[in-house]
Amino acid sequence: MHGCGALVQSKYKARHDAALKVLFYDLLCDVGLIESAPSWCSPETPKAAYKNDRASAFWDVPVYAEKTEVRAIRIDSRVVDRQKKRVLLLEMSCPWMANRKQKEEKTSKYAPLRWEMRQQYPHYKIARHNIIIDVLGGVSVET
User: For FRET with 17, which of 7, 10, 40, 81 sits at 20 to 30 Å CA-CA?
Assistant: First the structure.
C-alpha cells in the first residue's frame, strides 16, 4: 500500500470518517437532530446537513466566508446550537506516528475560519476542537 498514494488516501479517509462519525452522531443526538446514534460499527455515513428548529449540523461541508478571506474552509464537522448559542467546530486527524506533530499545527491553520464564524454568529460561543487519534489509537490531550 505504501507505493499507491490514491489507495493510502482512501484508506486514511475511511479510517478518519469512521472514527469521527461516532462523536458526530452523539452530538446530533444531544441537539435533537436524530433520535438515536447508530452503532459505532454501522456502515451508515452521516448526511451532509441536518436541521431542526434548535440546531443545524454539517458533515464535511465548506464554510463560505462572508467577512474575510479564509483558505481553510472545509472543517470536518460543525454543529450550530441556536438554543445554547454555540458553534462547535470539529477537525480530526488520524496520522501515522511520525506525522503527529504536523497535524497538531492545525490550530493556526483554522484561526481565520474561527474568526469568520465569530462574524457570522455574533453573541455565540465558538469552540474549535482538534482531535488527533494516531494509527495506534493514541489521542491528543490538547483541544
Answer: 81
For residue range 16-58, what is the model confidence (pLDDT) as tens digits? 888 899 999 999 999 999 999 999 889 899 999 999 999 999 9
Instruction: Tell me the residue ranges of DSSP E strands in 71-139.
Output: 77-81, 86-93, 125-132
Residue 105, burial from CB neighbour count under 10 angstroms (0-12, 13-18, 19+): exposed
What Rg, from alpha-carbon coordinates, does the chain have? 16
Chain centroid, CA 7 distance in Å: 22
Task: Calculate the CA dihedral of residues 133, 61, 115, 126 and round it to 10 degrees.
Answer: -60
**Structure confidence at residue 111 (pLDDT):** 74
How many angstroms separate the CA atoms of 94 and 27, rounded?
A: 20
How far CA 70 is from CA of 76, 104, 106, 110, 139, in Å, comes to 15, 19, 14, 9, 28
**Phi, psi angle pair for 29, to nearest 5°:** -65, -45
Residue 28 φ then ψ, to 5°: -60, -40
Domain ranges of the chain: 5-132
